[in-house]
Amino acid sequence: MSNGTPSSAGPPRRRVLDAVTGSLSRRYASERRFRLLGRIAVLSGLVFVGSLFLSIILNGYSGFFQTYVKLPVAFEQEALDPEGKRDRAALATADYGALVKKSLQAAFPDVSGRSELRELYGLVSSGAEYQLLDMVEADPSVIGTTRDVWLITSDDFDMLYKGRIDRDVPESDRRVSDRVLGWLDALEKQGAIETRFNWSFFTNGDSREPELAGIGGAVMGSFYTLLVCLVIAFPIGVAAAVYLEEFAPKNRLTDLIEVNINNLAAVPSIVFGLLGLAVLINFFGMPRSAPVVGGLVLALMVLPTIIIAGRASLKSVPPSIREAALGVGASKMQTVFHHVLPLAMPGMMTGMIIGMAHALGETAPLLMIGMVAFVVDVPRGFFDPSTLLPVQIYLWADSPERAFVEKTAAAIIVLLAFLITMNALAVFLRRRFERRW
After folding, report:
1. At what angle do helices 155-162 and 178-190 cross, to 10 degrees?
2. How far apart (Å, rounded) are the C-alpha atoms in residues 38 and 42?
């Protein structure tokens, strides 16, 4: 009997061990598959993001450069200042476009016919005449002389020189004719054409002409709008976070407030635009397309984010800090503002910067309050009509001209640079000043 018991118990043990071993093998294999799927998912995300960034950069880097053509311009006394008074009002109204056309005709004397001349005049941008006006106003002594001037080219000629228009396709499939290709080759042989960094892209306002359009107005509009948003949202957000976390009693009312703050953080941004349209513009009569209205709307939108981040920062301060301050005789107010709030401020600053980055990338609420308007002038104050960088990108993306494609991508690059900088600053502040408890 004693010898038979182990032998009868042996097979069940082996079966159990075999079942456990098989189960472990299956679980290990399942874990390996899960890790593989996780790596594939991460790699796929990186590939998609990298492809997106690469596409934006390839389409937009050329937008930071502009093509110029060198032409000998005769600043004729009879055309600009026949009376010789050098009156600025008279000089400002002179026909500088005629000087550009004469320079083009002199460079290509064989061109004749109305259609060919129209095509020839289309090589140079309409903004070239303002270049000549600026030269004359800066130095009236150029009147009566002939100078070699680098004039800004039109968008089609600029796209052609940059290789954005394929010159190998048939003429019927191109935006430019074979004559323009010949003129381009002739100018290249003379060394009269070159590409320069497009500083006007950062200083000009919007324009119907792609080669003259810039983000200067949108950048200043974004600056004024975010300044209003910061001045309003940050103090109110910090004050609300401090009160709710440190002073407010725990009851149903505060619970209801907390729930609503969390819900407001998830509300679609266009709802805040509707609120701004109904209350700020229609009820209070504030101006449309003004940075002050845009700043107020964005402040309402980012306020829940700042409050939530502020409360999380206050919670991260150890209770021992409060107990020590109260133990040496500090009041509740002194404890919060002298000890707790300074330690929580880095986290609050991080939340504020992330909220501002969120506001900088928003478009929907601004469309509702009229900041989608075509604004040429760079705003000089909080009440001037303006637009923001995301809205400017939206407007350019809807334009049919091929040159606006690279302008759109270039503006996206600038916007991404701002967003990455703001997020990097938030990470720096958190790592530099936040304490580990």
Report:
1. 70
2. 6
Nearest one of 190, 10, 198, 219 to 108, comparing CA atoms? 190
Q: Can you tell me the distance from the alpha carbon of 328 to that of 330, in angstroms, rounded to the nearest whole number?
A: 6
**Matching residue, tokens 């800066």:** 138
What is the pLDDT at residue 434? Answer: 66
Does residue 216 sit in helix, strand or coil?
Answer: helix
User: 44-84: per-residue pLDDT in tens?
Assistant: 999 999 999 999 999 899 999 999 999 999 988 888 888 87
If you count them, how many residues does the chain have?
437
Q: Hunting for tokens 């290249």 — which residue is that?
A: 188
Rounded-to-integer distance, Cα 153 and Cα 193, Å = 9
Could you give the angle at the alpha carbon of 229 between the alpha carbons of 228 and 235, nearest 5°?
100
Give whole-number Cα distances, 61 to 22, 23, 116, in Å: 57, 56, 32
> What per-residue confidence (pLDDT) applies to 436?
62
Phi and psi (nearest 5°) for 151?
Answer: -100, 145
Write the DSSP symbol of residue 286.
Answer: P
Q: What is the largest CA-CA distance in the chain?
A: 135
CA–CA separation, 181 and 365 (whole Å): 45
Mean residue pLDDT of the chain comes to: 87
Dump pLDDT digits (tens) for 339-367. Answer: 888 888 888 888 888 888 888 888 888 88
Find, among 220, 230, 206, the residue nearest to 299 by Cα. Answer: 230
Could you report the per-residue pLDDT of 242-253, keeping only the tens digit for each? 999 988 888 888
pLDDT confidence bin for 8, thresholds 50/70/90:
low
Alpha helical stretches, state H, 175-251: 178-190, 200-203, 216-242
Residue 194, SS3? strand
Give the DSSP letter string of 346-381. HHHHHHHHHHHHHHHT--HHHHHTTTTS---SPP-S
